[in-house]
Amino acid sequence: MSNSSVGRRRLIPRWRVKSSSLSRRFRVPGTKRSLLRFEGRYNPKTLQRELILRDKKPLFWLIGLFALAFIPIAIGQQLVFSIFGSICFFAAVNVFWTLIIGTAGLQSFASLATVGVGAYAATYLSITYGISWPVMLVIGTAFGGLMGLIISIPARRLDGLYYALLTIGISEFCRNYITQSDALGGQFNGALFGADRIVPEEAMQTTTGQTIAYLTSFVVLLISLAIFRVVSGGRIGILLRTAQSSKEDESFASAIGIDFQRARLLVFLIASAALGFVGAFYATNQGGASLSLFSLDQMLLLLAMIVIGGLGKAEGAVVGTVIVVFLNQWFTSWGPWRIVLVGILMLASVLYTRNGLFGLRQQLIEIRERRKALSRATRTTRYGAFLPEQGPEIPDKGVIAEREFERAIRDQLRDWITPEIIEEHRLSPMGQHSDHLERILNYFRKQPISNKYVVYCEESYKAYRVVALSGIPGVPPRSVDDKTYSNLDEAYHAVFLRRINDLKSQH
Amino acid sequence: MAQVSVTGYTDKPSVVEGETVSFYVTADNATEAQVDIVRLIHGDENPEGPGFIEEVVSSDFSGVKQVKKQFVDLGNAIRVPDSSGKLALTDSLTIATYVYATTPEKGRQVLLGKFSLHETAGYALGIDHAGRLAFWIADGSDTDEIVSQVPMAHHTWYFVAASFDAKSGKAVLHQEAIVNPYNGRLGRVAPFDHLSSVEQSLKLKIKSATTDFMWAAAGNSATVRGAFKDLLFNGKIDRSYVWNRALSLAEIKSQCGQSPIADGLVAGWDTTIGYGENGIDDIVVDVSANQLNGIGVQRPIRAMTGYNWSGKHDDWRVAPQEYGGISFHEDSVVDCQWDVTFSWTIPEGLKSAAYAARIRIGEAEDHIPFFVRAAKPKARILYLFPTSSYLAYANEMIVHHVPVAQAIGSHPAVLTKTEADYFQDPKYGRSTYDHYTDGEGVCYTSWLRPILNMRPKWRSSAIGTTWQFPRDLSATAWLEHQGYDFEVATDHDLMRDGLDLLKNYSVILTGSHPEYWNEFGLNVMEEYISTGGRLMYMGGNGFYWVISYRDGEPEIMEVRKGEAGMRAWQAEPGEYYHATSAERGGIWRNRGRAPQKLTGVGFTTQGFDACHPYFRMPDSYHKSVSWIFDGVEGEKFGDHGLALGGAAGLETERYDLLLGTPPHTKLLGSSTNWSDNYPGVHEDIMFHHPGLLGTQNPAVRADMTYFTAGNNGAVFSTGSIAWTSSLPSFGYENDVSRITKNILDAFSKPGELPGGAWTEDEKSWR
Ligand SMILES: [Fe+2]
Domain N,N-dimethylformamidase beta subunit-like C-terminal, which positions (chain B) (predicted)? Predict the structure, then answer.
C-alpha cells in the first residue's frame, strides 16, 4: 500500500445556500407536496451548508416523462409516433399489471385479455349502436371491471402457478371465442374496426392529428401512473405490502385490522377496470380491436418488459416497456433476432439481477459493502484499528484514538494471562491483587456497558448467575448460560473467566 | 401469564400518632392485595447477621385492599391556565421563543403550543422528526407543517419564530442562532450557518385543541390511561411570546433580543421575573395585559443560564436577566400524582420506629416504608434516619449508565430482579446519581414516587452490599436488641422542628451515610452539640453535599453537584446556584463548612472490594477516653461485619486539622493499608500524580475520633459507613457492638461525661 490517501471530490457543485434570504417553498396546488424536496444539511467534512435532493426519483420521473412527451413531437415522424404510442399503451398496461402482481399479489396473466375485453366491447357497441368515444371509455371500464370480477372468483381458492395457468386459459378462451364469433369479426381473423375515434381517421394523416393522438396516449399513461400512485401509495397499498413482506401474511394483516382477501381483490378490481379503460382507449385510438390483444406472444413480450424493468415498481414497468418496445419496433430489420435479444435481456435480468434494472442500485450498494468488508479483512495497514476509508465514517474521532489505546493494552494484557493469574483470582476475586491481575481487572471493569457481564441475583446468598447488560434502555440483560453459583465469589470468578475468554479471542 | 407487580409511596416520610399516612399504590395485572402494617426490624439478608426481620402490627387495618394500575405522566412542561381562551387561537398568529435543544434528533418535540394529538387539533412550534424547527397546525383530522431548511444543532441557543396568516394560508418560519463564547457547546469558530427563513402556504385552518397551552409538551389521551403529555422536549427554553396576528418576517427578525412588539401580543412570558432572596418558584410570569402566567409541571429546572448568558457572572443573583433558561426533561418526575389507595391513622402509643405497608399479591411483594416519630419524646436516645440522603439515592441506576461503575465498585455489579425490571422502564424517575435521557445531571429528587431502593431487603447493584436505609436498620435492630429505649425521627422532622426536636434527647445517632444536609439542618446540629448535645456519627461520607428544599415543599430536594467532590455529574458552568434556596451548590467543604468542623472527620476515600478492621491509636489509651474500649480485647477491632467483613470501609472519613477537626480531638482508632480500589477523594487532589490510590496514599484510611464540646456536649465519629453493618455480627455481641454500647451508655446519661478529669499533661513516663 504505497499510497493510502482516500477522499472523493464532487464534480457537480452543490446548490449554494444564501441563508439570509427568505426561502419560498412551493407546493403542488391542493396538496401538501413539493415537487422536488430539497433538504438542507451541514456537510460533515466542512460544516458548509448545502441543499441536497434527498429523493431523486421525482426528478428522474420529471425528466423521463418530459422526454417521453416531447421526443416524438420534436421528431414528428409517423414511425416514431407509432413506437412511442405503443410505449405509452404498453406502459399503461404494465403499470396496472404491476399493481395486480406487485400490490395485490395475484399471479394473473389475463391483464392483456382484460384490455382486449374492454377494447372489443367498446368497439362492438360503438359499431352496433354508434356510440361516441367518451361513452366507449366508460363501457371499456365497466367491462374491464366485469372481467376482473369474473377472473377474481377462482383467486379465492387458487394461488400461484395454478392461478397463472387458469388466467392464461381464460385469455385463450377469449381469443377462441372471438375467432368463432362473426359479430366480433371472427371472419376477419378477429379484426373488428369502425369504432368512433378521438382523432378522426382522416386527421391521422396530418402531423397535427398524429401529435394529438400521441398526446392522448401519453395522457392515458399519466392517468395510469396517477392511479398506481394513489392505490399503491395509499393505505391499502402500504398495508398489503407490509403484509406480504411479513411471514405471517394474512394473519399479520388481519391483526393490523385489514381484511387481506378483500383488500387484494379490491386492488385487483380497480386495476382490471383501469385495464378495460386502457383497452377502450386503444379502440378509440386505433378505431377498433384486433386479436393480438389476446395472443400469447404479445403477453410474453409484456412479461419481458416487467421482468427487465423490475417487478413491483411503476418506473420498472415504464422503463422495461421503453426498452422492449424500442427493440421490437425500431430494429424490425433484424427479424426474429430482435426477439432473441429480448429473450437474452430477460434471461440476464433473471440470472444476474435480483429485481430487474431498478433492483440494480441496491445490488451495487451491497456488492460495494461486500468488497469493503473483504478489503477490511485483508488489509494490514491500520490507523488506530481502522482503515483510512473508515475515518470519514466515524463522527467521533476520539473513538479511533481510544480504540488504538485499547488494542495495544489488550496485546499487553493477553501476555499476562497465566494459570497462576487465574488461580490468584479464583482464590480471591476481591481486594488487592498482583499488579498484572489488577491491571487486567481494571481493563475489564472500565469496558462500555453494552454486553458487559454482571452477576444476576436469583436468590440472595443462594443462587447467582452471569448475565450481560444490553446498555440500551428498555432492553433487558441477556443471560449467557444457565449455570448458577451458590456464592458471589464463584459468580465473580465465572464473570472473570468469561472476560478472559473474550479477551483472548478479541484482537 | 402477565407478570404481577406492586409498588407505591406515601404522602410523607414521617408521621406521629393520630396523624394519617396515605399510601399511593400501583399494581400490574391485579385488583386485590393483602396489606399489613409491619414494623421493620432488620433488613440485611446476609446470613452472618440476623436476616430479614419484620413484625406485623396487629391492627384492624390488615386485610385485602382494592388496588389498580396507576400511570405516571412523565416529563416537564409549563402549563398555561387560560380560562378565557385567549390562547385558543384559530386565526392568524405568531409564536417566538428562544430554545436550546439538547436532543433535537430524538423525534417530534413541542416547544410552545396548544396542540393535542388525540384531537389532531391546535397549533405548535416544535422540532420535527429530523431535528428541524417546525410549525404545525391541525384542523381536527389532518396536520400540516412548515419546517426549517436545516436541522438544529444541539446545545446551541436559537431565536425561533413562526407566523401564520390564516387569510392567505401563508406561514413564515425563522431561526437564527445566538452564539457567544460562553452560552453553548460550540463557539463561533465552528463555521455553522444556522440562519434560515422559510415561507410556505399551509393547507388547513386551525381547529382549537381543548388541551392547555403548554411549553415543551403536547396534549394526548388514551383509553384506560387518560390524559397525558406527549411530544416532550429536552433542553432549555427562555423568554417566549405569542401574538394573535401574523408578524412579518421583518418584524420577527427585529424581535430577537428585544422586548416584544405590543400590537397583538397575547402573552409575553419573561422567564427572568420571579427571582428572589430564596430562589424562584414554578410560576412563569406573563408580562402582557392578559397575565397568562404559566405553571411548571414536574418541576422544570430554573436558575439556568439563558440565551444571553454573557459568562461574566456565574450567579443568577447578580445577573437575573441572563438567567431566563428553563430546563425541561422528558423523563423528569417529582410527583406521580396518584389516587390514594388506602390510608392508616397511627394508633395511640405506637412505638416510634421504621414501619412499612407490606403489600402482597401472590408472589409479588413490596414494602412501602414510613417512619413514626414520638408524639411526646420520652427516650433519651434518638436515631435520625437520613431521609434526605435516601432521596438523593432514590432509584439510583449507575450500573446501567456509567461504564466505570464496575471500576468504582471494583467487582462485577450484582443485579436484582427488581432493578433489572425497573431499568426496562424507569418510569418513576431517577436519582441525583443519574442523568436525564439528554445527559444532564438529575438535580431534583422526590419522595412522591416509588423509591425502589429504599426497601428493607434492597442491595445496591454497584456496591454489592446494602446501602442507606436497609443498612440503617442494622443500627435500630441493634438498639432494640441491646434493650435501649430509643425513638426515631428523620431529616424531614429535623428540618421542620429544628432544635425543638433534638433538645429532647441526650444523644443523637446518625445513619450510616448521612451525606446530604441543608444549611438549617447543619445549623441545628451544630447548635445542639455546642449546647450540650451528644452526637454519635455512625457512618461515613456525611454532612457532605449542599441540598435545599423549597419552603412548604419538603418532598422535593435539590442538589447541584459542583466542581469538586466524588460526583456523578457536574452542573453546567453558571448553573451552580440552587433555584430553591439561592445558595451555591456543591460540597459543604468548598463553602467553608468541611464536615471535620462538625464531627472531627470528613470524607477521604471510597472503595468496595473489602472492609477492614481498625487498630487502636495511642490516644485511645488515655484515661479520658479509654473507657470507650472497656471490654475490648487487643488492639484490633471490627474485623467482621455484614458489609464485606469489616467495620472500616465503603466510604470513610479522615481526621484533618487543616479542614477544621477540633484540635483537642482524640484519634481513637484508624484503619489503613487498603487496596488500590480505594482512591483518595477528588477534593483533596491539587496536582494529580501517581500514588493517589490506597496502597500508596496515607489519606486512604478510616479514622475514629472523639471530642468533647461545651456544656457536656460530645461527638463520637466512627469514620466509616460499614461500622453499622458490623453491629449485628455474632448475635450483636462483638467489639464494634461493645464500643458503640460504651459510648451510648455514657452519652445517654445526663451530666458529666466519663474521663473528664484527666486533663493534665503526662509528667513522667512509666
Ligand atoms: Fe454517597
Answer: 302-728
* Residue pointed to by grid coordinates 387481506: A260
Same domain? For A354 and A251 the reply is: no
Q: Are residues B468 and B584 in the same domain?
A: yes
Is residue A183 located within the same domain as residue A240? yes
Share of chain B above pLDDT 70, in %: 100
The string of DSSP codes covering B52-97 is: -EEEE---TT-EEEE--------S-EEEE--TT-TT---SSEEEEE
Q: H helices then E strands: how many in chain A?
A: 17, 8
pLDDT for the residue A2:
43
Q: Kindly state whether residues B246 and B317 are assigned to the same domain.
A: yes
Considering only the beta carbons, identify the residue of A19, A461, A495 that sits closest to B193: A19
Among the candidates A380, A395, A425, a domain finishes at A380
pLDDT tens profile B168-221:
999 999 999 999 999 999 999 999 999 999 999 999 999 999 999 999 999 999
CA of B513 to the centre of ligand 1 (A): 7
* Residues of the domain holding A422: 413-505
> For residue B157, which of B240, B255, B236, B269 has the smallest C-alpha distance?
B236
Residues B381 and B236 in one domain: no
Query: Which of 22-51 (A) contact B at CB < 8 A?
Result: 22-27, 30-32, 39-42, 46-49, 51
Q: What is the mean pLDDT of residues B373-386?
A: 97
Clarify whether residues A41 and A90 are in a common domain: no
- 10-residue mean pLDDT profile of chain A (507 residues): values are 72 82 87 83 91 86 92 88 91 92 85 90 89 90 92 80 88 87 77 83 85 92 92 78 60 60 86 93 88 84 89 88 88 85 89 85 89 80 73 88 89 95 96 96 95 94 95 88 95 97 86
Residue B41 lies in a domain: no
Residue B335 belongs to some domain of the structure: no
The domain in which residue B206 lies consists of: 77-328
B495 and B401: one domain? yes
Same domain, A326 and A461: no
Q: What is the DSSP string of B403-454?
A: TTHHHHHTS--EE-HHHHHHHH--TT---TTSB-TTSPBP-EEESBS--TTS
Interchain CB distance below 8 Å, A454 and B399: yes
Those residues with Cβ within 8 angstroms of residue B374's Cβ, 6 or more apart along the chain or in another chain: B16, B352, B487, B489
Residue B634 has phi, psi (to 5 degrees) of 75, 180
B690 touches chain A (CB under 8 A): no
CB contact B461 to A (< 8 Å): yes
Nearest CA in chain B to A475: B424
What is the pTM (predicted TM-score) of this model? 0.88
Of B144, B151, B192, Cβ closest to residue A47: B192
Report CB contact under 8 Å: B676, A491: no
Q: Are residues B416 and B508 in the same domain?
A: yes
Q: Do B560 and B460 lie in a common domain?
A: yes
